[in-house]
Amino acid sequence: MDLFCIENILNLAQRKQRKKIVVAGKNNSFAVDAVLQSRKMGFGDPIFCGKEFSGLKTKETILFDDSDAKHALEKAIGMVNYGKADILLNTNPLTSESLDLAAGTNSSNSRVANYINIFASPKEHRLTLFTDTLINPNPGIKEKIGIINNSIPVADVLGIKNPNIAALAPVEFVNPAIKSTMDAAILSKMSQRGQFVRNVVVEGPLAMDNAESAIAARQKGVESIVPGNVDIYLFPDVESANITAQFLSFVFQVKLCGILTGIGIPMVVQSSLEQNDSWIYNIALAVLMLKAD
Predict the structure, then answer these.
(1) Of 9, 182, 219, 275, which residue is least crowded by CB atoms under 10 Å?
(2) Tally of structural domains, the chain
(3) How far apart are CA 241 and CA 209, in angstroms?
(4) CA of 277: how far to CAs of 7, 54, 177, 232, in Å?
């Protein structure tokens, strides 16, 4: 399938069996419209949780209709953990409290959480991932290993089987005084030795100019298949990742969607980087990330 258009994420989700999506948090009209749209498209079956949704215009299943948004979210997380729902849609802005609440109820809470944004690159004519745009302020090498391992399955469900990963830094030369270059070099060597969950090629450190251009990379002495052919951009910290995403979203009006990984349960949220219509794509990504039917 040609995945140049981000809308094709919806087409992929429509091939999956319908999933139960429990919705909790504030009554966000854009999120509600999206989850109802997922039902029309055949991959979602919404269940609303809490009194916030008592005023919906359509007749929907509403559980715990006497619970406020906070307690409804706690109960919704329990529904996912006990198999009564497949996916949690958290309509609230993501906070450390809700993140800890979701991660703390699952045996997988030792994993690194990260947020992955996805956009269609007009230059490379394919979907491209970049991370971490939301969670880890200044990830160390251990966290970056986890971020890469979390990102590989996301690429896989989008048809990117052996992703090329650019470990970004301010410069392309290893400099002991610049931590991001040291981390990138370690990650690159790890990929050469097959130390990630799947076969990937991590190249780094790469400055953005030689990540984007094979010619620029060769001029700097970097010989690799990754420059000019990047599937996943691994940023050195959340500041650089978030600012880059803001630039794409707000200046160039690039459509972004995203997925939260590494917390142990499928939870759909929306980053402030994304437009209101990203909810449906985020839901579709969560459906794709569930175990194969």
Answers:
(1) 219
(2) 2
(3) 15
(4) 11, 23, 42, 23
